[in-house]
Specification:
The complex is a heterodimer of chains A (95) and B (490).
Chain A (H helix, E strand, L loop, with lengths): L4 H10 L6 H18 L34 H5 L5 E2 L2 E2 L7
Antiparallel strand pairs in A: 1-2
Chain B lengths: L8 H10 L4 H14 L6 E4 L1 H16 L10 E5 L26 H8 L3 E6 L38 H8 L5 E6 L5 H7 L2 E4 L19 E6 L2 H11 L29 E5 L9 H16 L3 E5 L7 H16 L17 H12 L2 H13 L5 H22 L5 E5 L15 H5 L6 H6 L3 E8 L5 E7 L5 H15 L10
Parallel strand pairs in B: 2-3, 2-4, 7-8, 7-9
Antiparallel strand pairs in B: 1-3, 4-6, 5-6, 5-10, 9-11, 10-11
The chains are: A mainly alpha (95), B alpha/beta (490).
Chain lengths: 95, 490
């Protein structure tokens, strides 16, 4: 299946990745090639086959609903590019 | 002292316990080897001070009679494992300066077993690649060269720095991670042993996530017994990873008795692929003969959905990656590129922070998960994944292990295949099916190509039967007598 430049621009927007105009053409070609290659899967009849959810047959373990972590705001913020007053700081989102 | 770096992990363990040398001496020799091999670019971060301090602490523990299973063994850690207060990059620009405030479970297990950290090894960006060429920190050079040629070759990927470091005798072992072949293929390219355990055997906690339903950590070493010892130090149940399995970790070494008489070895016909170089087939046939001579029985098997494994993988893995990599937003860690609005900041940060291959995979992932395509691509791939797992289940009713080549070629040149993503993906044709089925696999060096490069054989096993794999692999290792050395140290 071929994707066009508009589709690439749309999914780049969805993925929040800026793709400069001059790179969109090449990327469109590459993604088309990959999608054409995976297209061979459509020749397989998979009706009635359960989609894989886990490779190991096990049920999700449960634990007591208790706080096991916390009181480490400094550590959480240690790697933040910008922090202020014990919070992450981001560009203004409300006027 | 340089000879200490030529010991296997097993020999070093025994030498340390006999008091032939100290952990300090062993570590010092490796710290020097790491420095001497800088031209390979195998390490992103060297931690010599940490290594020597760790070695001294290890010598103290040993003098008190408190030696762990990896006491005093210097190891390299793939830079995908979070290490407390030590730069962790995942080979990506977007994690600039990231110093985790916690330690991954696997590396913590290794330190608890007495191991010493030499540094963090280079890798394909976010473990996405088969050549190590996608790293923001540059490609890694394979310690091996073709006979009569000085052209630099790739070490394979994504655990390329780990494989190169072990092959060049910079580290006695290294951690790798394997999502579609990222331990086994570089092990084959660099002439070392690499094992991907069963999904769930090693905790994924604290490993930078790529595709969570596939990622699994494992050991890379110079010998099969080394891998058994190291895996024992890495594995174990971890409540912090809900997919980590709560079963005891066996003493793998104890099961390695060399006896494979009557063992049934499956030879899958679908792994004979047109266009594969004849020497790959030759080494495979050689492996068959070695196991026959040791008393094992060869059984022709069919894994009919093999050809669909790679395209299935290239839907499932990017889908999971696009979700996992959403966390790199310029807010919590690493790089931030300013923008006027929050969205512009995200887009600028991710546009600049991710390399070309990572962007391709995130976009493919976002596409196959987007409304209207989810069923046709993602659910379809998950259904075929079930069929691939069922192929193996059926085969394991007839055989104990499966023997195949590890990769369809020997190491290729740095820069080759870079303009053709699908050609690059084909490197993992023999490793991806078992990844999709969550099965354990091991690659070991079995011979040399016509131009003198290592070629690997792969054994695949049943879930949690790592012990059987290691036993059979050791029989192959003994028969192969692989003792060639890479040019950089010979």
């Amino acid at each position: 299946m071929a994707v066009d430049k508009d589709t690439v621009a749309r999914i780049a927007k969805l993925a929040r990745i800026r793709i400069p105009e001059e790179q969109q053409e090449a990327l469109t070609g590459e993604l088309t090639e990959i999608l054409n290659w995976v297209e061979q899967l459509s020749e397989l009849d998979t009706d009635g086959v359960e989609p894989m959810t886990s490779v190991v047959a096990m049920s999700l373990p449960k634990r007591e609903d208790a706080v096991t972590d916390g009181n480490c705001a400094d550590k959480v913020l240690k790697n933040a590019p910008e922090g202020a007053h014990g919070f992450f700081a981001v560009p203004k989102v409300v006027e | 002292m340089s000879k200490l770096t030529h010991l296997t992990l097993t020999e070093a363990r025994d030498g340390l316990s006999k008091g032939d040398f100290s952990a300090r001496e062993l570590t010092q020799a490796h710290v020097e080897a790491v420095e001497a091999c800088r031209s390979l670019n195998a390490f992103i971060t060297e931690t010599p001070d940490k290594a020597l301090d760790g070695a001294d602490a290890s010598d103290k523990r040993r003098s008190k009679g408190e030696a762990g299973v990896l006491e005093g063994i210097p190891l390299a850690i793939k830079d995908l494992f979070c290490t407390q207060d030590v730069l962790t990059t995942a080979g990506s620009h977007i994690l600039d300066g990231f110093q985790p405030q916690y330690e991954s479970t696997v590396s913590a297990n290794l330190w608890a077993a007495g191991a010493v950290m030499l540094g963090k090894t280079n890798l394909d960006e976010f473990a996405m690649g088969s050549s190590n060429m996608t790293s923001y920190y540059g490609g890694v050079e394979n310690p091996w060269r073709r006979e009569g040629s000085n052209a630099p070759l790739v070490p394979g990927g994504s655990s390329g720095g780990s494989a190169a470091a072990v092959a060049a005798r910079c580290a006695m072992g290294a951690t790798g991670t394997d999502t579609g072949g990222s331990i086994r293929q570089p092990a084959a390219f660099c002439g070392v042993v690499g094992m991907k355990p069963t999904y769930g055997r090693c905790s994924r906690w604290g490993i930078v996530a790529f595709a969570s339903s596939l990622d699994q950590a494992g050991p890379m070493t110079r010998g099969v017994r080394d891998a058994a010892i190291m895996l024992r130090g890495m594995a174990g149940h971890d409540p912090k990873d809900s997919t980590s399995v709560d079963t005891p970790v066996p003493d793998y070494e104890a099961a390695m008795n060399g006896d494979v008489r009557g063992l049934k070895v499956g030879i899958p016909k679908e792994y004979r692929i047109d266009g594969t170089p004849a020497e790959i087939d030759t080494v495979w046939q050689q492996g068959i003969e070695w196991l026959k001579a040791a008393g094992a029985e060869m059984v022709d098997i069919s894994l009919p959905h093999t050809k669909y494994a790679l395209p299935t993988y290239y839907i499932v893995a990017p889908a999971e990656a696009s979700s996992n990599l959403a966390r790199y937003d310029g807010v919590r860690y690493g790089l931030r590129v300013q923008g006027d609005t929050l969205d512009e900041m995200y887009e600028a940060t991710r546009g600049e922070g991710f390399g070309a291959e990572v962007k391709r995979r995130i976009l493919i992932g976002a596409y196959v998960l987007s409304a209207g395509y989810y069923d046709a691509y993602y659910n379809k791939a998950r259904r075929i994944r079930t069929l691939i797992a069922n192929d193996f289940k059926a085969a394991y009713e007839k055989v104990d292990v499966v023997l195949t080549p590890t990769a369809p070629s020997a190491a290729f040149g740095m820069g080759d295949k870079m303009d053709d993503p699908v050609a690059m993906y084909l490197n993992d044709v023999f490793t991806v099916p078992a990844s999709l089925a969550g099965l354990p696999g091991i690659s070991l060096p079995a011979g040399l190509s016509a131009d003198g490069l290592p070629l690997g054989l792969q054994l695949l096993g049943q879930p949690f039967e790592e012990g059987t794999l290691l036993k059979v692999a050791e029989v192959l290792e003994t028969a192969a007598e692989f003792d060639a050395l890479p040019q950089i140290i010979s």
